[in-house]
Amino acid sequence: MSASSGPLLLQIRDLRTYFYSQAKQAFVRAVDGVDLAVFKGSTLGIVGESGSGKSITMLSSIGLVTSAPGVITGSVIFQDGDKPVNLLGGLPDYVYLEITDGRIMAVHKQQPQWMTRVRQNLKPYRGNNIAMIFQNPKAAMHPYQTIGAQIMEAIQLHTDIKDKVAARQMALNWLDRVQMDSPRLRFDNHPHGLSGGMCQRAMIAMALAAQPSLLIADEPTTGLDATIQSKIVDLLLELRQDLGITTILISHDISVIKRLSDDVAVMYGGRVMETGPAALVLDERNEQRHPYTHALLASTPRRANANAQGYLPAIKGEVCDNINIPAGCRFLSRCHAINDRVRDRCRRMEPELTVVAPGHQVRCWLRQEDG
Amino acid sequence: MAQFDKYKPVILVISRELLLTALLLLGISMVVFAILYLAPGDPFAVLLGGQLVSESERQALLESLGLPSTWYGQYFSWLGHMLQGDFGNSLRSGVPVAQELVSTGLNTLYLIVGAMLVTLGFAVPIAIYSVSREHSLATWLMTILTYIVSALPLFWLGYILIYYFTRQLGIFPVSTSSGSGESLNWLHLVLPVLLLGIGNGAVGEILRHLRMELQRVMDEEYVRTARAKGAPVWRHAFAEGLLLPITEMVAAKLPHLLGGAIIVEQVFNWPGLGRLAWQAALDRDYPVILAVAVVAAAMVRMGSLLHRFVYISVNPRASQEH
Fold first, then answer.
1. Within a domain: residue A137?
2. What are phi and psi of A145, to 5 degrees?
3. CA distance to A293, A301, A303, A314, per residue, from A306 (Å)
4. pLDDT tier at B1 (50, 70, 90 boundaries)?
5. Which 8-state DSSP code applies to residue A127?
6. Residue of A68, A125, A207 with shortest CB distance to B135
7. A209–chain B Cβ distance below 8 A for any pair
8. Main-chain phi, psi angles of B122, to 5 degrees
9. In chain A, which residues have their Cβ closer than 8 Å to the Cβ of B128?
10. Window from A179-183, A202-206, B153-157, B235-239 with minimum mean pLDDT
11. Which residues in chain B touch residue A142, judged by CB atoms under 8 angstroms apart?
């Protein structure tokens, strides 16, 4: 696996996504200041519980959060050849946030101009340089079109192949490439006629057919049978080796992240808690890791993780409330590693991401020197 | 053969639906016949200018018209003739009903098709606009306006239209007397079509349904995939988000339109099915009432068949459900 260095393909800086929740009558900070870097040719795994903001981070980055009262700020720099482009460029012009005592009171947003700008910014890249695959592929593919037609559409939109016959041949090649059983038969199937695993293969073929430089995989194995899951992971590994495609993999499944990622970012409460090379972040003997990462790894289903009763230890407590953000560390209420040395600081102030080893950053007072 | 296999499910479903339609029309004719038979009033009393008819005079009249004397005899005789395309003669005018049905039926068809296009012409653009620009003042105003217009009573709005456009401005003519030989042209149709299209209460309801469905489909995962893929979103959202809800509403609103047509045709003196039915009901002109009921039911049924057909042609799953 490649090291966490070299030229960047995507860099996310201080990304924030706020929604208005009708149910709670308040603004939810789904993503609250995320910084991420993806190196060319590498795979970044984003891991965290449901509600940690990992999917929203990537959906926001490529303008797929369409809900009207949603606000997205920050910058997402994508390297288009030699040219760096800010995918969120110009958007702050259309939003004004009223913040009192750290709480968002109101959002003023020029929705039509905002939407137009999002479209303008992303039109050259979505599906073309940046492709995305989703969880639940049976719902994510068009129910009325054959999978062949959907792959052909991607080819005709984003490659030089415009001719129908050639596009069809190309689509068949891609179905073959993703190891679809009898591609010729499956070509004319609709998503409802296929299994979840086959649908995900078709989805991967559709995403890769445009030959993107960045692939975003949002929980690609979630909801599939266990055996199918590992086959999809095998396929993604193989394709990455063949095509050298840069990948962002979002998953709550540590074992999937472990097999595919070069770098890992651990998210909690809309924040990155820890980031660094997979070898360091996911190493169980590494004492420098964040207590949350430690707890996540300890709760993955493995024989060694079982406790004396034979059960897996769960992380106690509820996922951080994204409306009333605590003043101190977001993980404080669930932290098992806290001690008297840091307790006071944990309550008062949120720690910054701090370098603990080359390329390895942790957001925890325990990992910082006194002072 | 492969071509046939592809369309086989569609053909099967459609032929089944047609068979059901035939049974439905038979049932409707029976019910209407029963209602007419049990209803008070008597066509002969109307025919004979309100004089009370004695039983012997009645039998003589029935015999002279060649009608069976029992109720079931009358029904089956009517049914037998109807199956051969003969709807009998109007008791009032003596003209063959089928002949009148064709001319009035076409007039009503122009009216309701035009009205439906007007309704959709308002509802569809507003629905699309308000989904693409949610929470804006313009969509709010348009919605409120639509609901207000939808709530206005047809007959009242009709007379207002006639007053302004015909009396004051003199733009659109209104046919003056029924069947006086004056030639009707499309200008006569403009006001009734506008009235029925805007005023029948359907715009608001169709708008609400279309907007809800379109919004639902725009939030579907596969539409998000289309966005992520860089494909035109409308290409993906059209079938489920617009086409199906529109045909669904057309089918659902046809009965309302036919009901509204009765009023509009009265107000504008438009020689359609509604006026024919109205006059026939006043005259107890049984053959005409029966025939209009069957034709109106067939029209409504055609609307739902259209929706069914569109549904199974766009949704590959639908034809496999049967």
1. no
2. -110, 150
3. 17, 8, 6, 10
4. very low
5. T
6. A68
7. no
8. -85, -50
9. none
10. B153-157
11. 222, 225-226, 236
Option in A140, A144, A157 nearest B230 (CB): A157
For residue B225, the chain A residues in CB contact (below 8 A) are 132, 134, 140-142, 203
Mean pLDDT, range B61-77, rounded to an integer: 77
Residues 6 or more apart whose CB falls under 8 angstroms from that of A295 comprise A313, A315, A334, A336
Neighbouring residues of A25: CB distance < 8 A, sequence distance ≥ 6? none
Say yes or no for a CB contact (<8 Å) between B225 and A141.
yes
Share of chain B above pLDDT 70, in %: 88
Task: Note whether residue A184 is domain-resident.
Answer: no
Contact B229 A154 (CB under 8 A): yes
Nearest by CB to A153, which of B218, B221, B231? B231
Name residue B99's amino acid: Q
In chain B, the residue whose alpha carbon lies closest to the alpha carbon of A114 is B133
Residues shown for chain A: 371
Q: Do B231 and A131 touch (CB under 8 A)?
A: no
A367 found inside a domain: yes
- Which residues in A lie closer than 8 A to residue B222 (C-beta atoms)? 139-143
List beta partners, residue A222.
none
Domain range enclosing A325: 7-129+213-227+246-371
**Residue A209: pLDDT over 80:** yes
Out of B227, B229, B316, name the one closest to residue A144 (CB): B316
Calculate how close chain A gets to B223, using CA atoms only, in Å.
8
ipTM for the predicted complex: 0.90
- What total of structural domains would you count in chain A? 1
**How is chain B split into domains, by residue range?**
97-314
**pTM across the whole model:** 0.85
CATH class of B97-314: mainly alpha
The residue in chain A having the minimum alpha-carbon distance to the alpha carbon of residue B236 is A142
- DSSP symbols for A39-85: ETT-EEEEE--TTSSHHHHHHHHTT----TT-EEEEEEEEEETTEEE
Whether residue B315 and residue A143 make contact (CB cut-off 8 A), yes or no, is yes
Note the Cα B221 to chain centre separation in Å.
36
Say if A260 falls within a structural domain: yes
SS3 string, B56-120, reads: HHHHHHHHHHCCCCCHHHHHHHHHHHHHCCCCCECCCCCCEHHHHHHHHHHHHHHHHHHHHHHHH
pLDDT digits (tens, 9 = 90+) for A288-303: 889 999 888 888 776 6
Chain A interface test: which of B3, B133, B227 (most A C-beta within 10 Å): B227
Encoded tokens for A182? 């009898």
Distances (CA, A) of B107 to B87, B155, B160, B267, B280: 19, 19, 23, 15, 17
* CB proximity list for B163: less than 8 A, separation 6 or greater: none
Q: Is B162 exposed, middle or buried (0-12, 13-18, 19+ CB in 10 A)?
A: middle
| Residue in B284, B262, B295, B282 with CA at minimum distance from that of residue B100 | B295
Token pair belonging to B53 = 């008819």
Write down the pLDDT at residue A1: 44
Q: Report DSSP state, residue A319.
A: P
- Say which CATH number the domain at A273 has: 3.40.50.300
Contact assignment for B135 to A112 by CB distance below 8 Å: no
